[in-house]
Automatic annotation (TrEMBL):
This is Beta-ketoacyl-[acyl-carrier-protein] synthase III. The gene is fabH. Residues 260-264 are annotated as: ACP-binding. HAMAP family: FabH. Keywords: Acyltransferase, Cytoplasm, Fatty acid biosynthesis, Fatty acid metabolism, Lipid biosynthesis, Lipid metabolism, Multifunctional enzyme, Transferase. GO terms for biological process: fatty acid biosynthetic process; secondary metabolite biosynthetic process. Homodimer. InterPro entries: ACP_syn_III_C, ACP_syn_III_N, FabH, Thiolase-like.
Amino acid sequence: MSGDLRLRAVVKGVGSALPKRCVTNKELESTVDTSDEWIVQRTGIKQRYIAADDETTSTLGIAAARVALERAGLTPDDIDLVVCATSTPDYTFPSTATMIQAGLGITRGVAFDLQAVCAGFVFAVSTAEKFLLSGSHKRALVIGAETFSRILDWEDRTTCVLFGDGAGAIVLEAQEQPDQGQGDNLPRGILASCLRSDGKHRAKLYVDGGPSTTKTVGFLRMEGKEVFKFAVGQVTDVMAETFAACGITAQDLDWFVPHQANRRIIDASAQKFGIPPEKVVTTVQDHGNTSAASIPLALAVACDDGRIKPGDLVMIEAIGGGFTWGAAIIRW
Ligand code: UT7
């Protein structure tokens, strides 16, 4: 019934943090056999940020979370759930989420990491939403934070030019919202999400080390063409399902904020659904592929420059190693 209320996970604030050092394509030309022209043409990337030794996944996550809390008008004491999406934790354990929790001075609630590689932020948003809708927790910090520079083989030009470091965070709050509504009366918050995994694709994108196998951290390995094909060919299933679950179409979206891996993948996904370029938030040129951090970094840019406003309909979407992939629609 339309007069009924139900809990929704509503976005209260967004923040981001980047390492101090910006590395341009030109700078990479001096260390690896590549060119600014190749990188821009094939990926759209012009620069990326690379963390110094004292900038870690947790320090970047803490900085992003502080901004998100400030924008939300909240303090660390208001948070009872911290979910950090990362594939590059500071340590094998404890989780980066608990380090962020401690760094912010939060002493209650629960904090844990979630690992779904580049789809990690979408998985984390969807997971945090389920906690908030259950009534068990009230306010969540959802963070995507990565230092992929630490797992790159800097002699492999097919991967090292693609990735960067950074972190983004959003605060989600459980709020009573109208159960249903159409058009401008759609409730605020996460309206739907759809997640998928298929482990048979492991060899196309993986890290060749880990505590239980090589006892090392390992390096990222990727069959770029295969990942590209999957990303533009098959991941649209989660987008279609998420639109259907909300009862809206791509034409109703105000903003499409996809994972930022490659400009050509972003353009192709948007075109499939007829989303015009002016509604697509693209930051891959400035940040490179920051894996789980890419979507919240892009959200922060588009909120800070005034594009994403309260009431807007926003779709986030990503695909990562595994493969893992997912999409969510949020009414801001
Ligand atoms: O976050 C999710 C995971 N990642 C992705 O979504 C990435 C998906 N894949 C891609 O974005 C693209 O496949 C890449 C950007 C990785 C590669 O683009 P491509 O158009 O598929 O190029 P390619 O791998 O077919 O390589 C074309 C040529 C090759 O030379 P030959 O064999 O044609 O002589 C490569 O050796 O480009 C060469 N190449 C480079 N040249 C200059 C590969 N890397 C570089 C480089 N600089 N950095």
